[in-house]
Automatic annotation (TrEMBL):
Pathway: Polyol metabolism; glycerol degradation
Reaction equations catalysed: dihydroxyacetone + phosphoenolpyruvate = dihydroxyacetone phosphate + pyruvate
GO cellular component terms given for this protein: cytosol
NCBIfam families to which the protein is assigned, alphabetical: dha_L_ycgS
Record protein name field: phosphoenolpyruvate--glycerone phosphotransferase
E.C. code: 2.7.1.121
Chain's gene name: dhaL
Quaternary data: Homodimer. The dihydroxyacetone kinase complex is composed of a homodimer of DhaM, a homodimer of DhaK and the subunit DhaL.
Matching Pfam families: Dak2 (PF02734)
Residue span, DhaL domain: 10-210
Keyword set includes Kinase: yes
Organism: Tetragenococcus halophilus (Pediococcus halophilus)
GO function term, MF aspect, one: glycerone kinase activity
UniProt xrefs under SMART domains: Dak2
């Protein structure tokens, strides 16, 4: 039963550290995607942000830090350190996720689903983007819909669907003309290229799903 699984601050520290590892592995890939239709710094920017987050984790004693405070600090760090449009957007996701909570030391899977829904909703509001604009919203919103529908009874199968929808969403940006960001200026020339933010957000949010699936298995 999904709701018997409880997630503590350590779960989130593990998730964030693995997001940092994934970012290092994909730094060049994401930067290459951004070179196609942007200014070629997306992977570098995220790497700078997650390295700063790792520094915070390494120097912090977490015995008194709850999930909300941890995620808020992660969000603030990304907001301050990640350059370009993605800093505020990624920062917003984690801050909105944090603001879903009060001072819990442990939360349910359903609470995590609600946090993700709030985070994704926050990014839509902040970026004023909709599905079809060739942004991270194209990856995240289809995933959010799965969570909205399944949050109270989340299973590994639902999490697989969450990941699959985000992956397809990122791929769906390839034939799109961009309506937001730098790629907008390219008009039709952006067609044929995947949006770097959609790809990085799909891959980073897959890390959360992978960790949660392992808990539910
Ligand atoms: Mg860029």
């Amino acid at each position: 039963m999904a709701n018997e699984v409880m997630l503590n601050t350590n779960f989130f520290i593990d998730v964030i550290e693995n997001m940092g590892r994934l970012t290092e592995e994909n730094r060049n890939y994401w930067t290459r995607l951004d070179s196609d239709i942007g200014d070629g710094d997306h992977g570098i920017n995220l790497s700078i942000g997650f390295r700063a987050v790792k520094e915070y984790i390494d120097e912090t004693d977490f015995s008194d830090i709850d999930i909300k405070n941890f995620l808020k600090k992660v969000g603030m760090t990304l907001l301050g350190k990640v350059g370009g449009a993605s800093g505020p957007l990624y920062g917003t996701i984690f801050i909105k996720m944090a603001n879903t909570l009060s001072d819990e030391k442990e939360i349910t899977c359903e609470q995590l689903a609600e946090m993700l829904i709030n985070g994704i909703d926050g990014v839509k509001t902040r970026g004023k983007a909709e599905v079809g604009d060739k942004t991270m919203v194209d990856a995240l919103e289809p995933g959010m819909k799965v969570l909205e529908e399944k949050k109270s009874t989340l299973t590994v199968k639902d999490l697989d669907e969450f990941v699959e929808k985000m992956k397809k969403g990122a791929e769906s940006t390839i034939p799109m003309v961009a309506k937001k960001g730098r790629a907008m200026r390219l008009g039709e020339r952006a067609v044929g290229y995947k949006d770097p933010g959609a790809e990085s957000s799909y891959m980073l949010f897959k890390v959360i799903a992978d960790h949660l699936s392992r808990k539910l298995n």
